[in-house]
Amino acid sequence: MRTPFVAGNWKMFTTADSARKLATAAVAGVGQDQRVRVAVAPPFPYLALVGEVLKGSPIALSGQNLYPEKEGAFTGEVSTAMLLDVGCKYVILGHSERRHKLGENDLFINRKVNAALAAGLRVILCVGETLEEREADHTEAVLERQLTLGLADVPTSPDLHERVVIAYEPVWAIGTGRNATPDQAQLAHAFLRARVGQLLGATFASQFLIQYGGSVKPDNAASLLKQPDVDGALVGGASLNADHFLAIVRAAL
Ligand code: PEP
User: Fold this and answer.
1) HSE-up of residue 19 (Cα within 13 Å, Cβ side)
2) Residue 177 has pLDDT above 90, yes or no
């Protein structure tokens, strides 16, 4: 039985004040209910203050990125130790905005995945095809490549399913208002689960979580989340509105 997991990616939005209010409303809405795992990923400058608001709540704190070196002359970057220090449990890696707007490739993302896991952070690894790739019928090849290279050298252990979450995020559905249909999402998720089974074993394949991300809103969440291989959502835009985010969390029940 997989516990659904809904995470809110606040991207480069919020102010200190709105971040505090958003987190406070999420904490009040979730209460102590742990039937759905919930996390929020605020911008770096607000991690500590949101972490304070989350104290005592089951909502976990997540970073949106990291740099895969322990420390050093890497101006503007953030290490695994820093994320852990401010209370992060998760980190989002391989987000399509970082792949396509900031030029990150699979090898660099894989370094981050391994650095995060070695430090004890849980990873949400995003994979997904562009519209061009989908239209050229390359979806499975892209997912296969991003998954295989992204998870290369990941140390296997019985709790790996707790430490690695995959987010299927078709690039054409992110921030566009155009989401994958439930059938499209299910097909991609089933493919990812089967491929992960070949890479990391059948036990892990049946246990690990695959979130769907791409214009998830309160009105489409239930139909996506009821697909058998859709185990939750990575939510961008709608996570900036507490009522919408909480409605998506409820839809995961
Ligand atoms: C995301 O940022 O991961 C995302 C899925 O964004 P949106 O929900 O706005 O499409």
Assistant:
1) 24
2) no
